[in-house]
Design brief:
Oligomer: single chain
Number of strands: 16
Distance between the termini: 30 Å
Structural class: alpha+beta
CATH topology of the largest domain: Trna Endonuclease, Chain: A, domain 1
CATH class of the largest domain: Alpha Beta
Mean pLDDT: 96
Strand order of the largest sheet: 3-2-1-4-5-6
Strand content: 35-45%
Largest sheet: 6 strands, antiparallel
Low-confidence stretches: none
Shape: globular
Length: 232
């Protein structure tokens, strides 16, 4: 995935009302950027952090910048939750993820279940359908990458929807895109959402596949990198 415009470095002043972030630029001016992240953003967006925003010249946009990255030890954290699906889709199309190769058809945002849309649906004439749900993972807790960063009823629903597809004989895959360079192990955030963690373990024992891969960021783009170990 390549950025459409060159990213601009700044310092985060504050994030507020979930979707707004004030950023101080190198010349001392302060701009308000769109924050495309509805989560708590714990450990990836504190006042004083070095951040990178992307300009957008679309005259219809109220905010002319989008917050894309936060600088952290060893690299960058991807905070734009609109990016992970595209990053994983590109990786599947390029056969970078071994567990998700061998399908002729790669579809995005297909309706399924009860008023849901699957992030990626993989189809082949010789295989069961493969339903892939992608979760942007940015929270670092005690050295581990964990999800979610706040209680998520929506995420719980996705687990149940995938479990229903598995009952039908299809594949269900929960794909955690670990969006920062730190952490060598992924776990569900039981200390934040114990119900989600319990449901994930139950679904895993009934056939849900869980994958965790790191995404590697540069200031020009992002791509899926190494596989991360999982501990349930």
């Amino acid at each position: 995935m390549k950025y459409e415009e060159k990213l601009i470095r700044g310092t985060l002043v504050k994030r507020y009302k979930r979707f707004f972030a004030d950023v101080e630029l190198a010349d001392g001016s302060i701009v308000t950027a769109h924050c495309p992240n509805t989560g708590s953003m714990k450990t990836c967006g504190s006042a004083g952090d070095t951040v990178y925003i992307q300009p957008n010249a679309n005259p219809k946009r109220k905010l002319k910048f989008t917050w894309e990255l936060t600088k952290t030890k060893g690299g960058y954290i991807g905070v734009n939750t609109g990016r992970p699906n595209h990053i994983v889709f590109e990786a599947i199309e390029s056969n970078i993820i071994p567990e998700l190769t061998g399908y002729e058809s790669h579809l995005q945002e297909k309706k399924y279940g009860k008023n849901s849309r699957i992030d990626i649906l993989l189809e082949s004439a010789s295989k069961p359908q493969c339903f892939v749900e992608i979760k942007n993972t940015t929270l670092l807790h005690e050295g581990q990458l964990v999800f979610p960063d706040s209680v998520t009823s929506r995420g719980l629903k996705h687990i149940h929807e995938l479990a229903n597809e598995i009952k039908k004989g299809n594949r269900g895959v929960m794909f955690y895109l670990c969006n920062r360079p730190e952490g060598d192990l992924f776990s569900p955030a039981e200390h934040i959402d114990p119900e989600y963690a319990k449901a994930l373990k139950t679904a895993y024992n009934k056939g849900l596949e869980i994958l965790a891969y790191r995404v590697n960021h540069t200031l020009t783009g992002s791509r899926v990198g190494e596989k991360i170990a999982i501990k349930l």
